[in-house]
Predict the 3D structure of the following.
Amino acid sequence: MGESKCRPLGFLIGLPFALVALVLSLVGAVVWLIGSVLSCLCPCCICFAGLANCAVGLIKLPIKVIQWCTDKIPC
């Protein structure tokens, strides 16, 4: 039998942190949108593209938080 990846306790513990991360991901989505528009308008400013890439990391944050919490709970 393989090891089950279903860890409901880790999911429940990580849920409040994921909700906070969801708010941050919404902020990241706005930053990504603004950075993408600015990098299209002025392609000589490479910092806007870097800002958009950092915002993509914020958008992926809730999934990473849930995965981290479920990996830490050994039940």
User: Anything to note?
Assistant: The mean pLDDT is 78.
